[in-house]
Design a protein that fits this description.
By secondary structure, this protein is mostly helical. Helices cover 38% and strands 5% of the residues. It has helices spanning 18-32, 40-47, 51-63, 88-94, 120-136, 139-143; strands spanning 67-70, 76-79. Strands 1-2 form a two-stranded antiparallel sheet. The longest helix has 17 residues, at 120-136. It starts with 17 loop residues before the first helix and ends in a 29-residue tail after the last helix. The model is unreliable at 1-13 and 148-172 (pLDDT under 50).
Length: 172
């Protein structure tokens, strides 16, 4: 009889959370806006993402000084520094979303078979490579702007898994 050593939370595929997805989308949008302000409502409606969640995310990013928040009727958000200088790793740190592909690959090792595991070293090597890619990939690359992008084409996700916009009025 085979007994699973991983909890159900650990058995999900490695993927970015919706918070990271929406944050990447918003930062890419702002990177493409050439310093112009954009409102939560504008970004949420344009991409069909929940306005309340997006507002929470952008407030966190403004507190972390990735964004500048301008209040008032003509207010909104803009990047606080060039998109080339903001990495995916920095964004994920601001959102408190560590990249961890398996339980043994992060800072805390909660794996029950870590002392006998055959793949632990390989997984930790893969973890290091993924972290490096996230550190070296800028918002400019994601947005398809600046010198780092290839042919100006964005690699933004299609958001087919994003929840449908409910049409409810939400405050920003």
């Amino acid at each position: 009889m085979h007994r699973s050593v991983h909890s159900s939370a650990e058995s999900t595929l490695f993927q970015l959370t919706r918070r990271v997805d929406y944050a990447l989308l918003a930062l890419a949008h702002l990177a493409r806006s050439s310093g112009a302000l954009a409102t939560v409502r504008e970004i949420a409606e344009l991409y069909g993402v929940p306005q309340t969640l997006l507002a929470q995310i952008l407030r966190v990013l403004a507190r972390a000084e990735l964004l500048v928040s301008v209040r008032g009727s003509k207010g909104g958000y803009r990047l606080n520094r060039p998109a080339e200088e903001i990495s995916i790793a920095e964004l994920m740190d601001c959102l408190d979303m560590p990249v961890q592909i398996l339980c043994c690959a992060g800072e805390t090792d909660s794996c029950q078979i870590s002392t006998t595991c055959l793949i632990r070293d390989a997984v930790q090597t893969l973890q290091t490579k993924i972290e490096r890619v996230f550190r070296e990939t800028s918002i400019a690359e994601i947005a398809g702007v600046g010198s780092e992008s290839s042919e100006g084409t964005a690699c933004l996700p299609t958001h087919t898994c994003a929840p449908a916009h409910t049409g409810q009025k939400e405050r920003s």
